[in-house]
Amino acid sequence: MRTIIAIARHDLRLLMTDRGAVIWLILVPVVFAAFFGLVLGQSSKPVDAKVPLTVIDADGGPVARLLITELESERLLLSSAGPAETDAPPERALVLVLPSGLSEAVSAGQQTTLRLEKAPGASAEAALVVQARIVSAIATVLGRLVEAEVRLDPGAPVAEGAATNLDHAEDQVVIESRFAGEATIVPGGFAQSIPGNTVMFVMLVALTYGAGAVSGERSGGHLRRLLTTPVSRGEIIAGKIAGRLVIASLQITVLMAVGVIANRIFAVTIGDHPVATWIVLLIYALAVAPLGVAFGGWFTDPDRASSIGVIATMVMAAFGGCWWPLEIVSRPLQRLAMLFPTGWAMRALHGTISFGQGLPGVLVPLVVLLGFALVFSLIAAKSLRID
Predict the structure, then answer these.
(1) 314 contact partners, CB below 8 Å, separation of at least 6
(2) Kindly report the CA angle at 241 between 240 and 247, in degrees rounded to 5?
(3) pTM (2 d.p.)
(4) Stretch 353-359: mean pLDDT, rounded?
(5) 46-166 has CATH 3.40.1710 classification
(6) pLDDT per residue as tens digits for the range 127-177
(7) What is the model's pLDDT at position 137?
């Protein structure tokens, strides 16, 4: 065991003396994650989405004021405009017009019409969200008006301020809505870019620097010279795998620390279970580390080993969901992703980051990743010839 640790520590020390490798280890993943996180934008649950709505209050009465108050609680980004601005300018995509005499008509039990204007370029989906929330606000206002009428004097018109006084009344029935199942959202923004780039760059370093270093040591005779010491072939292979694991673990830990700091300062999405996310990545590193040793054993030319490592990483990153969420691709491509450790890693990371799952919720991907680690370790042991 001491020999294995010594070999792993030696590999880590060599890496830290290579400035270019350190940049690709830490700086480049952070830059890529930040760039694509900002470009893709933050994801959110549909129920939490806030849609801009301009309200033109031509009434100014108590019912209109109560309706505006309810709309503010319906997760709408409200802005107001004067009655003279009834003709909405193009930048106002959705405008709700409260007509003059609204309060009097409602108090007298007369039907009245609210007008929702939609600009030509406005999103149809946003318009549907606004309509649903306007209907919800109207239902709440009507319920409170009926309650006010009953409490004050049945049959009498709603008095000024009677409904407003009920604004803070406790609701007797509360409806809570949520989406069933795990796939509540398609991960986007930092929820996609952080795990995607971390998974990709952990593999990239292992299959380029890691594989190239092993290939160079093998072709240069360094591994043969190790056999002249009291070190077995198995200890050399285990030490090389351990070296790649230590490097990947250091990379993961630093990137997770950067993510936690970014979450505290900039509210970047890292989920509610950062420790679980860290553990998932460490288990993923167990699968990636022996693969880097196997690549080094397959090629005697370090440059070729690194080049093939880049191609292999890009293929597994693309098909594994590191570049885009697997939720947006077809079923056949989703099944294809499960052939790669990147696909299972992204599945587990989306669980801990986007879907609020802890380690118990992602046990299946973790077991599969451990299976990859075992298979790749056996392949590395057979591929790395020291002769």
Answers:
(1) none
(2) 90
(3) 0.67
(4) 87
(5) yes
(6) 887 888 888 888 888 877 777 666 655 555 554 544 555 545 565 666 665
(7) 85
Domain boundaries, the chain: 2-43+185-383, 46-166
pLDDT at 205: 93
Q: Can you tell me the distance from the alpha carbon of 163 to that of 141, in angstroms, rounded to the nearest whole number?
A: 8
DSSP state of 185: S
Burial class (CB in 10 A: 0-12, 13-18, 19+), 309: buried
* pLDDT score of 101: 87
Q: Which of 284, 294, 250 is nearest to 9 (CA)?
A: 250
Distance in angstroms (rounded) separating the CA atoms of residues 197 and 167: 48
| Main-chain dihedrals φ then ψ at residue 89, nearest 5 degrees | -70, 160
Q: Which pairing describes strands 94-98 and 115-118: parallel, antiparallel, or unpaired? A: antiparallel
d(Cα 349, Cα 274) in Å, to the nearest integer? 10
| DSSP label of 122 | S
CB-CB neighbours of 364 under 10 Å: 12
* CA 302 – CA 262 distance, rounded (Å): 36
pLDDT beyond 60 at 181: no
- Whole-angstrom Cα distance, residue 125 to residue 385? 60
**How does residue 241 score in pLDDT terms, banded at 50, 70 and 90?**
very high
Per-residue pLDDT at 184 exceeds 80: no
Task: Look at the alpha carbons of 245, 251, 257, 263 in this order and tell me if their dihedral is positive or negative.
Answer: negative
Q: What sign results for the dihedral spanned by CA atoms 118, 122, 124, 127?
A: negative
Distance CA 318, CA 211 (A): 20
Tokens of 121: 């370029």
- Kindly give the pairing relationship between strand 94-98 and strand 51-57: parallel
Give the pLDDT band of residue 182 (cuts 50, 70, 90).
very low
Which DSSP string do the residues of 250-266 spell out, in sequence order? HHHHHHHHHHHHHHHHH
Q: Which helix (H) or strand (E) holds 223?
A: helix 222-226
Cα separation of 342 and 344, whole Å?
A: 6
In the three-class reduction of DSSP (H, G, I as helix; E, B as strand; rest coil), residue 241 is classed as helix
Helix (H, G, I), strand (E, B) or coil at 355: coil
Rounded Cα distance, 193 and 40, in Å: 8
Tokens 């949520």 belong to residue: 178
Check if the beta carbon of residue 248 is closer than 8 Å to that of residue 202.
yes
